[in-house]
From TrEMBL, chains A, B:
CDD domains with a match to the protein in the record: HisRS-like_core
PANTHER family: HISTIDINE--TRNA LIGASE, HISTIDYL-TRNA SYNTHETASE
Protein name, as recorded: Histidine--tRNA ligase
Organism: Treponema saccharophilum DSM 2985
EC class name: ligase
InterPro entries: aa-tRNA-synth_II, aa-tRNA-synth_II/BPL/LPL, Anticodon-bd, Anticodon-bd_dom_sf, His-tRNA-ligase, HisRS-like_core, HisRS/HisZ
Length: 436, 436
């Protein structure tokens, strides 16, 4: 074929090769396991939806980034850019078929045509959980607790979850007479880690028109010694106790009761910018590389599906950005290398024995051993190249003598240690005994 | 908000609610487990690709069905309509990073704008396996063996896998002097189950111009008494032994050696129509409802990635159509109902105890029990509605007396049987002992 096409993927997209995909699958499976163990249930929604459904609430930035087109039926459609908007539509559409509180997880791809840059892709995976239909401290705490448990399950324990409450901040701004400027103020505060205190102060002075206001805001967003001391300070600056501070204290009590309070800090500088959150908000940083940003964020919102139903559904949720998390794990040297799920390889020593090899494989599989038969009598070096790439622990060698005696030679491939003249049953036993 | 949007999905698309999604996840996990145990490794490719890459080899029908558009960067892009074309592009692009034979699985969604009809969706899930880089009977047999094992793992054992070899049929047509009409003949033969023997004969007479040819073809595609007798007949009609019949005999020997030969029939009417297969081909029918069509099909091809690389990569693969398989399981009453992954629910009997409930939940989770805390003190009937929907086995009741005594009442929700005054440890033991 002279007319060959250069194989390539679109800008901002990528293939995932086996070792990396095994790692991704492993993380997803562990996260899923934890989500399930807290009572979250899976749903699925279409990748394509009416643009009207996905984009009505969005700002101009999202519209520019979305993959949107006219389908063959002249419908204006778009690929989902997050899992929250489809979930809101889903909840409204199936309200009568669901029960509340409804706790769902959804681990799936989303698409945004962002400017490609290091570690940023146009197709990426989100791992979302949300509880809707309950405005309670228990639901808030549960999400915070799942976040920690999911990260622990994948071996990430050196982590800090930063928590805040938008309601307390709003009260404080009201007391300061700056409520109507809250959007600009939030936008500036959100940049603290990025542009530094002085630059944020300069912006705040311009926004509020008063140095004293800027300084009060900066004082507000600084953490005190510990969670409780910070909460006391925020309460004081916001004008005293109210539902929001009571809620934070209740959540804190639950953290202590569950013995996980050390993972959380009260960080008044976390606001989640212009997002639709109304209550608790949180971001999660790997202590070893906070610079990659939050790997798990979320918060409480007043009304999930107001665009589609008159039922008011308060909720709380979080999302693990799997791609960013993996970037972090790579930086920390915490990724594992695994080339396959195999326990053993039956090498093809003699092509006249290929039927016998399948028989042995069937016996081993019936005992729960993951095994493949090398399908052709290639040079042994070529066969080893495959078992190396697939990180197979055990080689099974059967030449004509072994086949005649109905035995095998077992070989630990890493050390080249050999165990000759084992029956298939003995070989199976050895493989299983060293499987962890 | 007066300006509400009607929540709805696009024609031919659908949401999956929790009980159905749990079923789907369960099937996928079991199929994945089997694929892995035979040495297949996962990859991932983008949902969106250049239209040129996806569509070059396709026929007009595919082009009409594909979701294709111009992206914001003026690129002509399309959503994948199968997992084979992206795999061919992947293999060519990463040839130097892979090892061969390369065995991959890919379980993912594909999109086709087909006319929506009962059980047909525009977004559906395929579970593909392929082995490329080996033209061997062992590789052919392995795919056939995985198909059976994957279906067995999900409880589908009453199944027949129909196998055939395109090469033998091609030799037969050559002998008949009808090679150049093979496309039309294949198309007719493929319709046997749908339109019946007489209608196929009429088409064949028209195509070949001779009643005797039509009758010979009909004789060829009829099965004899058993696999071996049929193979003898095909060999005879195709002009004697050749590589193709030797291959079929070798595969048959492997089926017998592995003790799984009863599942397979040699069915000369299976051709996979105009697909690119060149060797063995197969289709799989649930014996209880063959009318839903093949739930797992595939075959051997000469050259996977010839459009993108000069390396000739022979391969063999199969694909389970998850949506059709589920439709079949539903018809057979073989689907299971499961509302969540929970073992137990801690009811909220008294809102003053919410912190205590979290403490108990943390202790139970540390013992490996999947448990959720009902987050608010709602009417007990409302709490039961949730545990019913989520099919939770155990209720944990803690009122003020129990909390004071640091005990719980365990309740088997289905039978209402109660086990009062258990310590949390005793309750955990009972829950775990009845978990299968």
């Amino acid at each position: 074929m002279a007319d060959r096409i250069q194989p390539r993927v679109l800008k901002g997209f990528r293939d995932i090769l086996p070792a990396a995909e095994i790692e991704r699958a492993d993380l997803q499976e562990k996260i899923t396991k934890v989500y399930r163990s807290f009572g979250f249930v899976p749903i699925d929604t279409p990748v394509l939806e009416y643009s009207e459904i996905l984009l009505r609430k969005s700002n101009g930035e999202t519209e520019k980034q979305v993959f949107r087109f006219e389908d063959n039926g002249k419908r204006d459609v778009a690929m989902r850019f997050d899992l929250t908007v489809p979930f809101a539509r889903f909840t409204a559409e199936h309200e009568s078929e669901l029960y509340f509180p409804f706790k769902r997880y959804h681990i799936a791809k989303v698409w945004r045509g962002e400017k490609p840059q290091a570690g940023r892709y146009r197709e990426f995976m989100q791992c979302d959980i949300d509880t809707v239909g309950s405005d309670s401290a228990a639901a808030d705490f549960e999400i915070l607790s799942v976040m920690k448990a999911a990260l622990a399950e994948i071996g990430v324990t050196d982590v800090t979850i930063h928590v805040n409450h938008r309601g307390i901040f709003n009260r404080f701004l009201e007391k300061l007479g700056q409520s109507e400027k809250s959007e600009d103020i939030l936008r500036s505060v959100d940049k603290l880690a990025k542009i530094g205190r002085d630059a944020v102060r300069a912006e705040l002075v311009e926004t509020t028109g008063a140095e004293s206001c800027a300084d009060e805001i900066l004082e507000y967003i600084a953490s005190a010694d510990d969670f409780d001391a910070t909460l006391d300070k925020l309460e004081r600056m916001a004008g005293g106790e109210a539902d929001d501070t009571k809620r934070m204290r209740e959540i804190r009590e639950m953290m202590k009761a569950a013995g996980i309070d050390a993972t959380y800090v009260l960080d008044p500088s976390i606001t989640r910018g212009l997002d639709y959150y109304t209550g608790v908000v949180y971001e999660t940083f790997l202590n070893g590389c906070p610079e990659i940003g939050s790997v798990c964020s979320g918060g409480r919102y007043d009304n999930l599906a107001g665009l589609y139903t008159k039922t008011k559904l308060p909720g709380v949720g979080a999302s693990i950005g799997l791609d960013r998390l993996i970037a972090g794990l790579e930086k920390l040297g915490k990724t594992t290398k695994k080339g396959s799920y195999l326990d053993a390889e039956i090498f093809c020593m003699d092509k006249s024995l290929v039927v016998h090899y399948q028989k042995v494989a069937a016996v081993l599989r019936a005992k729960g051993i993951a095994v493949e038969v090398f399908p052709e009598q290639k040079k042994i070096a070529q066969q080893y190249a495959v078992t190396d790439a697939k990180c197979v622990k055990w080689g099974i060698i059967i030449g004509t003598d072994e086949a005649a005696g109905n035995v095998v030679t077992l070989k630990k491939l890493e050390t080249r240690e050999q165990f000759p003249s084992l029956t298939v049953e003995q070989a199976a036993e050895k493989i299983l005994s060293e499987k962890n």
